[in-house]
Each structure stands twice: as structure tokens, then as C-alpha cells.
Specification:
heterodimer, A: Uridine Diphospho-n-acetylenolpyruvylglucosamine Reductase, domain 3, Alpha-Beta Plaits, 3 domains, 8-stranded antiparallel β-sheet, B: about 475 residues, 18 helices, binds flavin-adenine dinucleotide
Chain lengths: ~350, ~475
């Protein structure tokens, strides 16, 4: 547990003066995401520790380098959790990196993403100014929502130094039910189940099986189990953890890994049967050597976007292409935070 | 951009070339209803009020205004409470009232596609046949529009469990200040690049004009019940809120009212509120039948154990609706016991409630003005309503000063100046209380990235640095004068 804020600000200040690109590194567990990093390393992992935690207020504030494992353990003492189920691609995964990459696990469609749970951040912008946005309260509409804007920006708008998050109580009961069926039927069933007011907290199809997780009061979980009358997966928790952290055999990195974020009810016949279909249909993982353009076309037809999540050529574009007007706004927004372009340049797009 | 100045008449003539003449309003009498939003103490008359009917017309309006540097103030239903939709004297009001179509409801993916002028409640009404609804429910939901909701990132009594507008919007189409169409977000749950949706929610018409919105629909819970509990002290009611959260429950709604609000709401709605209570809690539990049964019992016993003087649980949908009616009509109800009221919107950490209410009581005595409180207790969002009479000269100035002090108190205890109503023209003075000069400068830089000429809703939301400096020197002057 340490506060190295002065050193971090100093390093950004130096970089600003000398126009030195910086590569912001947290736990280095997601170095593979985004385009290939360039620049001098700026390490946030040492800037760590929980600053405050008020279980009854449902809020925790921690320095950006705090490990997810530490947060999870402290919250568990009070029977609370990070409801967005942050993936841990390694034990060094930090909360700062999780926000910067907007990473959330299987519960996301029901519980919300890390972006949804952020209440406030402190960040160092590209002018080496340490600024505070949002706060520790649930509702705050003063000024633009700069905190949520950090989700997915991959550090290109600022070095996140501190984060306040909404936390949630752990459910009293959890159970995972299993259906055997092909992908196209599972997509339909996931939509149908999601339209019922049952306590669903995850739904994923993988290799011929649909897994649906129930979380809530024991009475609600038991009654739904009985009503749906499906086989119960005994090691359900383990399955969801492996899915979350990409440890299932599917994620063997033998070929480029594509991430589709699309309309949950959409069918992509060409890919679905060989994909993992998570988030009740809204998130699909596909591994294969494909043309980016083809993938973008399929994603577009499914009213969503695709990114090359891991593997493949990391010096080319890895995110879904951006129409010109939107590109213009994004560039200007980047300049408003980082006029000299020193924070993770090119990590999101070659042109920014 | 052109440097030639257009006369107001010529400008309106330009608009009439592509908008039906009756929808280019420029006479004072017809424009009068547009001079303010729900905060009627702030008003201004614009050059013209425009009611275009197509996105192309909107685009043309923006192009013309951009060319001649004319301020544009978007307007939904005008129910806002921060003078966000108040006109600019040198600009036009762009009403989205004609964009009131629900374009599609897709029950499979549980998405509604909406024009910005669709009323909030109309979404849930249309989704009902599919067993779905739109969760954020501002008390003004009969009238307010989804475009206004997005622009303000509005909340409602059910936002404790289901989130604010920002959590329920999937994508937005908007026009930039120059009339360029942008699509932000998608049908997926996240998008590549910067999360501009996060910026647009709560942007108060400062970054663009929202022309289409896709929102998430949720399945209607199998069952919902409200527990009403009365207490002799605010402290006990506050402790009960904490106890429910500590017990691991997130109610669908958790609202508090103080004695002034209780009796006003009871007079108005005859909801069966106990008039002698010092504080009243309404706690809604929803979910499956079994879950609701289980949690209702737990909530009732927490209230009883923490000293509730009475506990009542709704036994039918009609009873539940009636219990909520009192709370949801609290503002108009207060409007009946006082000629005017001024609604504040600060948010505080819940644990500070008793302290803040006591301080507020002291201030109330100091200023000689009554305050009624309704409170989104679950998420710490306070609505102190300062009662006054606008016909008494100088009274509103006193009220504003009192209101400002309340917001400063909220910031002091770790909260913020606005939880859901927005900054608008009204809370500009408190922005420097919550944010440093450098933070305000960062906001201004974001604004410039979208609207370099600053013609979208000028004078609202984000103070310019010059404004801050001028304001500070006026305040310093005041202090100096008062010695
Ligand atoms: C009795 C009462 C109860 C209320 N209760 C609540 C409550 O419970 N929760 C809550 O959050 N609020 C509440 N409000 C405040 C208000 O209803 C909300 O802020 C609402 O979202 C405003 O919607 P509107 O359509 O009336 O917007 P308007 O007041 O017309 O506009 C609000 C702001 O949005 C901008 N705007 C509107 N449409 C667009 C668009 N298409 N594109 C870009 N900008 C746009 C305007 O410029 C303005 O800045 C209440 C108000 C009243 C009068």
C-alpha cells in the first residue's frame, strides 16, 4: 500500500515538457489488448491500497494500482462484491486497468459493467494536472461524466490514479442450470429467458451447452430451479470464473480472438456454432484467422461492433472502424485531455 | 461561419423556407410558454421558437445557426428544474416536441427505438404488451421526454436498483453543432473507442442535439410491494435505511419524507400517510413472488426493530400505486401549501443525513424560510424544498442564497450539488464549489471539442473560466462590503 502520486505527476510533467510518449502499465495483465504499446513505461501498480470503504454506503475507493484480488477479499469480509465481475487475466490485474479497458464478466447484462459502477475518478491528464471527477455518492450530474468516459479509453485520456466504485451485496444463493442445444436455438432461448422476471445473473452458450446462472434469495433461486427443471451444474462457480478469466480450453490463443459486442438476439450463422456466446447473446468470442473487413460486416449486420481482442497483427487497427465525423470528435476530445499526445499514443487507433 | 449579422426577421424568414410558417414562432404571446422551464424564476425570451418535424429540418436549422453564430437551446417538455431549457435572448429555442414517435419496440432484444420527444411514461405503456418496461421513472414521467431525460441523465424512485438514464441507454443519434449526424453506441452493451454516450448523458444540450435514442427494456417484475414505515425521528429513519442495505438488500426504491412533506402529500393524495410522523419511509421490494415474500418480511422486521411507530405493507397494486402517488406528487403538493417553492437537488453520503438535516434546520431558522424534504434515501439524493412567496420583493434572492448554502453543505460532507436535475443556468455559481479551476477548464475543453463556437445552450452547465473569475471577484467584493 503506497501513495506515489507525486512521482506519477512528476513523470507526466517531464513527458509533457519533452513530448515523451508514455505507456501506462498497471498489472500488465492486459498488455495484449489494444494496439501495440509504445513509449516509456509509467507504472501505476505501486500506487495502490484501499483509501476508504463504507459497506453501508455501498462505496469503495482505491488507488488505481490496487489488485482486484485485494478488493474482492476485503469486500467479501462484509459479504459484498464487485457486481460487474472483473476478469482477472492474471493475479496482478488492477482496478485501474480494469476500468481503462472496460472489462466486465458474465454478470454484465444484468448487473452492469465497471463503467456503470464507477462513481468517481482522479486522473492525471496529459498536461500533468491531477483532477477529480465524480465522487463517492450514487448520483452526481454536475459537469460532464468524465469518470465513465475513462472506461475503454485505455489510458489515452489520463492516468487514472484513484477510483470510487459502487459495490453490491453478495447474493444469498447461486445455481447454474444447463440445457443441451445448438447455438441458434440457445440464442432464441436466452432472449426468451431474459424476458422473464427470474433472477438470472449470467447466460452463456459454449460447445453445445447453454449455461444459465441464477442469483438471489434462496427462495427465488430454488423456485426458479424447480420451475425450469433443468440439470444443475455442480461446479458452476468454477465454470463462470474460467469463462470470466478466459481460462476455458476455447481461449487457447491458437488463432486471433475476435470480440463481438452486438444485438443479443442476432444470429451470425457463419460463426455462432464455433463461438462462445456470452452476455445472453450480446457478447460473442470467435477464434480464427479472418479478414477484419469481413468481421466488421458481420458485426454491423448484427447491429454491433467487433474488435480483434487478442492475437493477430497488433500494429494494424484492432478496433471496429470509426466513421469520419466520429473520428474527428474523438481526436478533438483526445486533444482536450492530452494536447501533446503523450498518453498511450496509438493504443486505441493508429490515428490517435 | 459568417460575420454578416442577420436581422431577426430575416433569420425567421430563412427558417420559414423549409419549416412550416406556423412552426416558426416569433411573436411574444405565442413564445411566452417557452420563456422558462420548470424553474419559472429564471426566464428569458428568445428570437424565435422552432418546431421542426424532420431530422433534415433540424440539420438545416443547425447549419444556419452555425453559420451566423446563433445560440441554440434544445427543448423537450420543459419540465427541467435547473433552467437548462431557458431560452437565450440572442438565440432560438429548438423544440423536439414534434419528434414524439416510438419507432420500434423489439421484444426479442428488449430494445425500444425512440424519437427524442417521446414521453418517458409512454415507453413503458407501449412495452407493456410484451411484459416489459423502461425502468428510470422521474416523478415528472407523464410529461418529460426521453431526450430531456438523456440530456439530464435523469433519475427516479426506481433508480436505486435499476440505475439512472445513463445505465439504460444503448445508443443515441445526435446532430453536432454544425449539423453532422453522429451515432454513439450500438445494440451491443459496449462500443469501441471513447464512450461518448457517457458524455452525452447529462450533457444538458451543450454537446449536440439528440435525435434518436435506443433504450433497454426490462421484464416487469412478477410482484412488487411497498412497505411504509413512520418514525419519530429522522435519525431512526436514516438508521433503518442503513440497516436494510447492511442486511444485503437493494430495494427497488427507498424514499424518505419529512413532516412538512408528509402532511402536504397527504393533503394532496390521501395516500394514508400518518400525519403525526416526523419521518416516513417508503421501501419497495420487487422480484419473483418468493423473493418479494422473503424480503418484505425482512424489511418489516428491520423497521419494527428500529422503532417504527407504524408499519404498513401494500396488499394490492392499487394500494401500492396510492402509496407512491403521495411521494410522486410531493412537488405539486408542496406547491399547494406555499405560493412558491424552490427545489434543491444535492446528494450526500447517506450517513451524513441527520447532520445535514439538522444544519438545514438551523439555516431555515436563520433565513426565516420553511423547508420541506423529500429524499431518495437509498442513494442519498436530497430534495429540500424551500417555501417562499415570490411576490415579496427580495424574497427569492434570500431563497437562492439559502439554497446555495445547502448545496455547499452537501459538497462539504462529501456529496455534490446536483444528483439528477442538472446544473443549467441555475447552479453555475456552485460549480466552483465542487470543482477546481483546472477541472472546470477541462470541462470547458471538452465542450470546445464538440462546440468550438460555444453556441449550443450557452451560459448553462459548464461555467467558462472567465465567468468563474468574474463571479469570484463579485463575491470577494460582497465580503469586502459587508466587512
Ligand atoms: C414535478 C417534477 C418532478 C420531477 N421529478 C424528477 C425526478 O424524479 N427525477 C429527475 O431526474 N428529474 C425530475 N424532474 C426534472 C425534469 O423532469 C427532468 O430533468 C427531465 O428529464 C426533463 O425532461 P424535459 O423533456 O422536460 O426536458 P427539458 O426541460 O425540455 O430540457 C432539459 C435539458 O435537456 C436539454 N434537451 C432536451 N431535449 C434535448 C435533445 N433532444 N437534445 C439535446 N438536449 C436536449 C435542454 O436543452 C435542457 O438543457 C422533475 C420535474 C418536475 C417539474
Amino acid at each position: 500500500m503506497a501513495d506515489i502520486i507525486a512521482a506519477l505527476i512528476n513523470q507526466v510533467e517531464q513527458a509533457y515538457q519533452s513530448q515523451q510518449p508514455l505507456e501506462i502499465v498497471g498489472g500488465a495483465s492486459k498488455k495484449f489488448i489494444g494496439r501495440q504499446p509504445v513509449g516509456e513505461a509509467l507504472n501505476t501498480a505501486e500506487h495502490c491500497g484501499i483509501i476508504s470503504y463504507e459497506p453501508v454506503e455501498l462505496v469503495i475507493t482505491a488507488r488505481a494500482g490496487t489488485r482486484i484480488s485485494e478488493l474482492t477479499a476485503v469486500l467479501a469480509e462484509n459479504n459484498q462484491m464487485l457486481a460487474f465481475e472483473p476478469p482477472c487475466f492474471s493475479s496482478s490485474t488492477t482496478i485501474g486497468g480494469t476500468l481503462a479497458c472496460n472489462q466486465s464478466g458474465p454478470a454484465r447484462p444484468w448487473a452492469g459493467s465497471i463503467r456503470d459502477h464507477v462513481l468517481g475518478v482522479r486522473l492525471i491528464n496529459g498536461r500533468a494536472e491531477h483532477l477529480k471527477f465524480g465522487g463517492q455518492v450514487m448520483k452526481n450530474v454536475a459537469g460532464y461524466d468524465v469518470s465513465r468516459l475513462q472506461a475503454g479509453a485505455m489510458g489515452t485520456l489520463g492516468v487514472i490514479t484513484e477510483i470510487s466504485l459502487k459495490v453490491m451485496p453478495k447474493p444469498a444463493a447461486v445455481a447454474t442450470l444447463v440445457w443441451e442445444m445448438p447455438a441458434d436455438e440457445a440464442i432464441v432461448l436466452m432472449s426468451e429467458l431474459s424476458a422473464t422476471a427470474k433472477p438470472i445473473s449470467a447466460a452463456c452458450w459454449c460447445q453445445g451447452k447453454l449455461y444459465v446462472r441464477l442469483s438471489g434469495t434462496s427462495s427465488a433461486v430454488e423456485a426458479t430451479k424447480k420451475q425450469w427443471a433443468r440439470a444443475v451444474k455442480e461446479d458452476g462457480d468454477f465454470f463462470w470464473q474460467q469463462l470470466r478469466d478466459q481460462q476455458l480450453a476455447f481461449f487457447n490463443r491458437a488463432a486471433p480472438l475476435w470480440r463481438f459486442s452486438i444485438n443479443p438476439a442476432a444470429q451470425i450463422p457463419r460463426l455462432d456454432a464455433r463461438s462462445i456466446i456470452d452476455w445472453g447473446g450480446a457478447l460473442r468470442w470467435y477464434q480464427g484467422t479472418e479478414q477484419q473487413q469481413d468481421m466488421e460486416q458481420l458485426a454491423g449486420q448484427a447491429h454491433g461492433q467487433v474488435s480483434l481482442f487478442a492475437g493477430g497483427e497488433r500494429k494494424a487497427e484492432v478496433l471496429h472502424s470509426t466513421p469520419a465525423p466520429l473520428r474527428g470528435i474523438q481526436k478533438k476530445l483526445k486533444e482536450s485531455f492530452d494536447p501533446k499526445g503523450i498518453l498511450n499514443p496509438g493504443r486505441l487507433y493508429s490515428w490517435m | 461561419m459568417s460575420t454578416t449579422k442577420l436581422s431577426n426577421t430575416d433569420l425567421c424568414q430563412l427558417f420559414r423556407e423549409f419549416i412550416a410558417a406556423e412552426y416558426v414562432i416569433s411573436d411574444a404571446e405565442t413564445m411566452r410558454p417557452y420563456e422558462c422551464d420548470g424553474l419559472a424564476m429564471y426566464c428569458e425570451m428568445p428570437i424565435a421558437v422552432l418546431l421542426p418535424e424532420t431530422v433534415e429540418q433540424l440539420q438545416q436549422v443547425l447549419q444556419i445557426c452555425h453559420r451566423y453564430s446563433i445560440p441554440v437551446v434544445a427543448r423537450g417538455a420543459g419540465t427541467g428544474l435547473c433552467a437548462g431549457a431557458m431560452p437565450d435572448a440572442a438565440g432560438v429555442v429548438l423544440s423536439l416536441a414534434k419528434f414524439d414517435q416510438i419507432i420500434a419496440i423489439d421484444p426479442q432484444s428488449r430494445i425500444a427505438v425512440l424519437q427524442p420527444g417521446v414521453r418517458n411514461l409512454a415507453i413503458s405503456e407501449a412495452a407493456l404488451e410484451h411484459g416489459l418496461y423502461y425502468a428510470p421513472d422521474p416523478s415528472s414521467q407523464i410529461a418529460c421526454t426521453i431526450g430531456g431525460n438523456v440530456a439530464e441523465n435523469s433519475g427516479g424512485v426506481h433508480c436505486l436498483k435499476y440505475g439512472l438514464t445513463v445505465h439504460n441507454v444503448l445508443s443515441v443519434e445526435m446532430l453536432t453543432v454544425a449539423g453532422e449526424l453522429l451515432c454513439l453506441g450500438s445494440d451491443g452493451l459496449d462500443s469501441c473507442g471513447f464512450d461518448l454516450l457517457a458524455l452525452i448523458n447529462g450533457s444538458e444540450g451543450l454537446l449536440g442535439i439528440i435525435t434518436q435514442i435506443k433504450v433497454k427494456l426490462l421484464p416487469i417484475p412478477e410482484r412488487a410491494q411497498v412497505v411504509m414505515a413512520a418514525f419519530d425521528s429522522i435519525q431512526q429513519a436514516g438508521d433503518s435505511v442503513g440497516a436494510i442495505i447492511a442486511a444485503g438488500m437493494i430495494p427497488a426504491g427507498l424514499e424518505m419524507m419529512d413532516s412538512h412533506a408528509i402532511s402536504a402529500a397527504e393533503d394532496f393524495a390521501q395516500a394514508g400517510y400518518p400525519r403525526d410522523a416526523t419521518a416516513l419511509l417508503l421501501c419497495e421490494v420487487d422480484g419473483t413472488h418468493e423473493e418479494v415474500q422473503e424480503n418484505i418480511e425482512r424489511v418489516e422486521s428491520i423497521f419494527q426493530n428500529l422503532g417504527a411507530t407504524s408499519v404498513k405493507t401494500s396488499q394490492s397494486e392499487a394500494e401500492r400505486a396510492l402509496l407512491w402517488k403521495g411521494r410522486k406528487s410531493a412537488f405539486p403538493a408542496i406547491g399547494r401549501i406555499s405560493p412558491d417553492y424552490y427545489c434543491m437537488d444535492g446528494t450526500i453520503p447517506r450517513g451524513q443525513l441527520a447532520y445535514v438535516l439538522n444544519k438545514m434546520q438551523e439555516m431555515s431558522q436563520h433565513y426565516g424560510l420553511r423547508v420541506a424534504n423529500v429524499f431518495h434515501a437509498g442513494d442519498g439524493n436530497l430534495h429540500p424544498l424551500i417555501l417562499f412567496d415570490a411576490n415579496i420583493p427580495g424574497e427569492f434572492a434570500k431563497v437562492e442564497e439559502f439554497g446555495g448554502k445547502i448545496l455547499e453543505l452537501c459538497v462539504e460532507v462529501g456529496g455534490c450539488i446536483t444528483g439528477e436535475h442538472g446544473v443549467g443556468a441555475e447552479k453555475m455559481r456552485q460549480m466552483p464549489v465542487q470543482f477546481s479551476a483546472l477541472e472546470l477548464l477541462q470541462f470547458a475543453a471538452i465542450k470546445t471539442a464538440f462546440d468550438p463556437g460555444g453556441t449550443l445552450n450557452p451560459g448553462k452547465g459548464i461555467p467558462t473560466l472567465r465567468w468563474c473569475q468574474e463571479y469570484r471577484s463579485i463575491e470577494l467584493q460582497k465580503v469586502a462590503n459587508h466587512g
